[in-house]
Amino acid sequence: MRFILKQASALVLMAGASYAQEAPIIHDGEFEFLRAQFAEQWDAQDAEIEVKLAEIRDANEGQPPNILYILIDDVSFGQMGNRTMNYVTGFDTPNINDFATEGMSLMRMYTEPSCTPTRTAMLTGRHPVRAGVEEVKVALVGEGLAAEEVTIAEILKEKGYNTVHVGKWHQGDIEQAYPHNQGFDWAAFPLHQQVQLSLMTRDAMVANMLGFHSSGQSNQFQLDERFKPYGLVTGVEGEAGGLAREVDMAPGEEWTQAKYEEMNLRYQRQALEQLERLASQDEPFFMQYWPLYPLNFVYPEQAVSRNGGFHADKLQVLDGWIGDVLAKLDETGKADNTVVMIMADNGLMYHYEGTSGLNQLIYRGGKTQHLEGGVRTDAFIRWPGAIEAGSAAGDIVHVSDLFTTFARIAGATDRIPRDRVIDGTDQTALLLEGEGNSRRDCVYVYEGPVLRSVVKQEFKMHLPAPGQPGAAAPVFNVYRGPREEHPLVGYSLWSGASFQDMVKRHQKTIAKHPHLPLGKGVPYEGIENLRPESELTREVFSSWQ
Amino acid sequence: MRFILKQASALVLMAGASYAQEAPIIHDGEFEFLRAQFAEQWDAQDAEIEVKLAEIRDANEGQPPNILYILIDDVSFGQMGNRTMNYVTGFDTPNINDFATEGMSLMRMYTEPSCTPTRTAMLTGRHPVRAGVEEVKVALVGEGLAAEEVTIAEILKEKGYNTVHVGKWHQGDIEQAYPHNQGFDWAAFPLHQQVQLSLMTRDAMVANMLGFHSSGQSNQFQLDERFKPYGLVTGVEGEAGGLAREVDMAPGEEWTQAKYEEMNLRYQRQALEQLERLASQDEPFFMQYWPLYPLNFVYPEQAVSRNGGFHADKLQVLDGWIGDVLAKLDETGKADNTVVMIMADNGLMYHYEGTSGLNQLIYRGGKTQHLEGGVRTDAFIRWPGAIEAGSAAGDIVHVSDLFTTFARIAGATDRIPRDRVIDGTDQTALLLEGEGNSRRDCVYVYEGPVLRSVVKQEFKMHLPAPGQPGAAAPVFNVYRGPREEHPLVGYSLWSGASFQDMVKRHQKTIAKHPHLPLGKGVPYEGIENLRPESELTREVFSSWQ
User: Fold this and answer.
1) Using 50, 70 and 90 to split pLDDT, how confident is the model at B355?
2) What percent of chain A is modeled with pLDDT above 70?
3) Which of A84, A307, A481 sits opposite B78 (nearest CB)?
4) Same domain, A332 and A466
């Protein structure tokens, strides 16, 4: 398998070499609609931007900026970055609040409604469905991000960047999907989303009855011993082209809340170590720090926040850690030539509200849902001297735009694949020229494989269910009705046809450029110290394949 | 009637003279509970505060500070004062946002859930039910704030302040309730809440079908021509002890949206004029500016906000006007010795959401409701050199506290009545010493005459309906469940008894110091130029009395 991967990697490199700068990127139909209206203006602006980027490189010994991308798990819009909401929720995010004042607040950042697809969109610049990605579960799946997908890490690496990933990954349990096989020189990550495994502990069981542990049940009629996950691989580390190694578990050892907390601490420690190491090298760096916190389901020994709930408290802890990462970056002297972005991957799981501030607050809905509460998140980006400090932009941005924009900033646009649809729009103009310069005014919002709504400007249509007439599709003005509760006939009747046209253009693009398949394989291949219980779990899993 | 009023006023003055500084203010039982725990600490702090206040007076030629109190109508918490929420709602409040950074943000200000009671609480320092005040309707009622109530304006006037009221008043249509008979030297105000009358116009009828106008109905079976209000008095102006005069309506004239907009413009103009006049005088001043906007139900000719809805747009307009008032204060050179407060009176009428951004956003519920969305509002207070710029306080504050606190700041605590319950807590320590120095950690929340919930620290009990058992009363943690949707058995079972005790203490205080009656009288007395149609309306109204 590793051999095949290396071949795939080589193919990508060869393909990369053949991307002519002149070949246009294949965008969705809607982008071409906009481009037809603004081509001249955008081309002129792009020429200015090239000059600006060159000036910035010249001021930094010819090097493009470093990129530090911090992606937080399941935090709804408004929960970090502003003091007013801190007072509502009873936990503080002073470091992120301060950070927000040092760069641009992207006030209308759309993600996908769940962890795996949002991360795929950022890594590939594509709607996850185009890569066959829907959602990756915590248990074994034998699936993951395909080797054929081209990640931002691969692109930047080809341009000489050192690349590191630390923390949550959640792109699958097959070898080709591991970050060190997807463009990262080095990676430390849990093979699944570890908090879900942490729910299977005695600590979680007694914490407000949220978890499951076999000691709390008689298990009298249980046959299947693998329905309740057992023997799963936990945290691994790996280097590009090498094997992964599980780092924190001995054969027969049981996963506990203490181990989950230690895992979080370790990633924080490694983020600091790697940042220091990367900053000491001559090459520019691209580092992803994707913490597991605030996800957590056990109350702290002693609360640090006024809220005190397990989720709220860990977000306050994480804010402190992010402060430490930013301080470390300052210490290295590289802060001025580093683009730092902090955002969340989707709204929180409000389904469990009442227990820990897991609430639908400003927007309705949360994780797994196409509602604004599922796909709108706080997002802050800082680039001293290039992005105006204290600025904000209400323009629509989608998480896939980061792929295209980071590539542009790194001078790597020519490495963006030309043989597949790229949904990411280059938002460098927005960052450098400010609010009003987005090249996107719409988003297609999927729940897994299903297109559930379309956002255009201040309007949003919830698409009718299969078989339902288009006239049944409600349209909302997200300023006047942010909670998407009261559709108005006045919006629906004139905008319905326009929205349906947008869906048709999107579908035509898919018909012309079909989705690529999800990566498939044997789970846990490429791990050198697989524990016997993990081996057994894999065997049971494979018995059905 | 005027004669009687003057007598009443004289009585108040005499009573005022007899308030010995040593006689304790009668507070509610819950306050005494706290005082028993903190008396020594508070007394020591009060001694320090007296020194501080004296220093401030000494630095200002021996004068206490001016007070400018701006109270906005029906704006839910989070809708003004912070940029993040501006981006959510699509309208901007840059002046109020800036103002918020110049003083203290009171992050947990509780009001009453409706206009009239909130204003009564601020004016008298008492829960409105103690003054017999529930709600005053737009049509004729023959009721209002009783002459026997002692307002903050009366107290400050006795201490040499010049006092002015401009804008919404909404304390009743009887002579004793008019602001110029309640302690204000001069007042300009609509006799009712004018926007409700503005709904009875042709403009409002065609604006999204929100209003009523007789031309839009056949009126075929109508008998009563007064059910649809007609001939009501609109804007009046008056001087202390004198008659009011209606200023903007000729006999037979019809009220229109244009007249409503002109009325708003006039109050803004008068606010600026009065501020300039007051600042030019030797005495300190107390000025209330209580705008009618953002209440409005007709779309603007041309939107100024991204939202564009009638409510949202007028809040943006009003923000600009408030900026003009603050600039005018700067211009007078009195800003440094003026306490300025900007807040809203209660949550907005979300019942009509979808039409103009009238949404339940952060908290659930709105005007008329005991939910946080009804009684939590944005509140910002600035006092250069005394209140720390850019500070915030999560302490609980109730709007009645302003009465007691403004009195303290003005050196008029000795004028606070000692013969009735005062609910307002002196919050000077909070303002001068910062977060954590509130002398209140609870609020009784009424809907009209009914006690609906009790807030204590981070917990809030919704009281059971009459006849329902106490065990049915849900308790919420407002940090973990700000929308009061998911009561938890774990909170209710231990806190239930404590909450019931609080209710008992409150009821015992009422039994000992019964509520005073609402003022009653003949509507529209004391207006010198009553129009014939207003006279007719009063006659029809009186036919039933």
Assistant:
1) low
2) 94
3) A84
4) no
**Separation between Cα atoms, residue A457 and residue A455, nearest integer Å:** 7
Angle between helices A29-58 and A489-512 (to 10 degrees): 80
Of the candidates A408, A441, A474, which is a domain's last residue? A441
CA atoms within 13 A on the CB side of A172: 29
Chain A residues touching chain B at CB-CB below 8 Å: 77-78, 81-85, 87-91, 105, 107-108, 306-309, 312, 353-357, 359-363, 392, 394, 458, 479-483, 485-488
Checking if the pLDDT of B14 tops 60, the result is: no
Residues A228, A139 contacting (CB under 8 angstroms):
no
Whether A8 maps to a domain, the answer reads no
**ipTM of the complex in this document:** 0.90
Domain encompassing residue A432: 29-58+70-212+231-441
* Beta strand ranges found along A73-142 (DSSP E): 104-106, 109-110
**A108 with B89: Cβ contact below 8 A:** no
Average pLDDT, integer, range B355-374: 88
Is B32 domain-assigned?
Answer: no
Are the beta carbons of B488 and A90 separated by less than 8 Å?
no
- B85–A362 CB contact, under 8 Å: yes
**Closest Cβ–Cβ partner in B77, B356, B392 for A480:** B356
The confidence score (pLDDT) of residue A353 equals 62
| Residue of A84, A108, A478 to mutate, interface with B, max B Cβ within 10 Å | A84
pLDDT for B484: 93
In a domain, B233, yes or no: yes
Among A412, A441, A470, which residue terminates a domain? A441
- Do B361 and B352 contact (CB within 8 A), yes or no? no
Q: What 3-state class would DSSP assign to A444?
A: strand
Count of domains forming chain B? 2
This prediction has a pTM of: 0.93
Answer yes or no: do B71 and B160 share one domain. yes
| Amino acid (1-letter code) at residue B27 | H
Are B123 and B237 within one domain? yes
**Mean pLDDT of the region B19-38:** 85
The residue among B497, B454, B455 whose CA lies nearest residue B463 is B454
> Residues A377, A473: one domain?
no
Residue pair B527/B244 in contact (Cβ under 8 Å)? The answer is yes
Host H or E run for residue B459: strand B459-462
Does B34 fall in a domain?
A: no
Residues B345 and B288 in one domain: yes
Q: What is the mean pLDDT of each run of 10 residues along chain A (545 residues)?
A: 41 40 87 95 97 97 97 95 94 97 98 97 98 84 96 98 97 97 98 86 82 84 83 96 96 94 98 98 98 91 91 95 98 98 94 71 93 97 98 98 98 97 98 98 96 97 89 90 87 90 96 97 97 94 82
Nearest CA among A427, A434, A423, A545 for reference residue A32: A423
